[in-house]
């Protein structure tokens, strides 16, 4: 199936699969060149937005050296009346590479897909748990 024929639901399903079973490049390839990703509740030290596929790709690769995802759990996808827009609830589990410490995070993302690529995503995560994870990583993400 080509990216131009994927529905928003199919694109989000592929994104969730790729988080665990693909590379960071595979994941970045699901986003439009001019994508905008915002995280209104980003913890301190973590940028609240990413603009453009290349900035996203670089950020994903940097995080790939720090954490590994093992599963995506408890997925619920809500289709909306807005064409190309879905709301997805899910959790991710993984480990911190340096220590082997396990972690899990829950998300609610509002995703807008155009031409089979993610054009916009508003990502709402468990901000307390995310802050704890970034504290464990002891890094600042650009």
UniProtKB/TrEMBL annotation:
Stretches assigned to the SnoaL-like domain: 16-120
Cross-referenced InterPro entries: NTF2-like_dom_sf (IPR032710), SnoaL-like (IPR037401)
A Pfam cross-reference name: SnoaL_2
Top-rank lineage group of the source organism: Bacteria
Name of protein: Nuclear transport factor 2 family protein
Taxonomic source organism: Streptacidiphilus cavernicola
């Amino acid at each position: 199936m080509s990216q131009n024929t994927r529905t928003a639901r199919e694109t989000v399903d592929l994104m969730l699969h790729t988080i665990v079973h693909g590379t960071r490049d595979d994941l970045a390839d699901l986003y439009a060149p001019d994508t905008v990703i915002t995280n209104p509740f980003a913890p301190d030290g973590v940028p609240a937005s990413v603009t453009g596929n290349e900035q996203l790709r670089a950020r994903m690769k940097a995080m790939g050296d720090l954490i590994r995802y093992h599963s995506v759990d408890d997925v619920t996808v809500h289709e909306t009346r807005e064409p190309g827009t879905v709301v997805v609830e899910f959790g991710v589990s993984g480990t911190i590479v340096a220590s082997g410490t396990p972690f899990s995070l829950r998300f609610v993302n509002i995703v807008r897909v155009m031409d089979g690529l993610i054009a916009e995503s508003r990502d709402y995560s468990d901000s307390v748990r995310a802050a704890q994870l970034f504290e464990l990583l002891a890094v600042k993400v650009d």
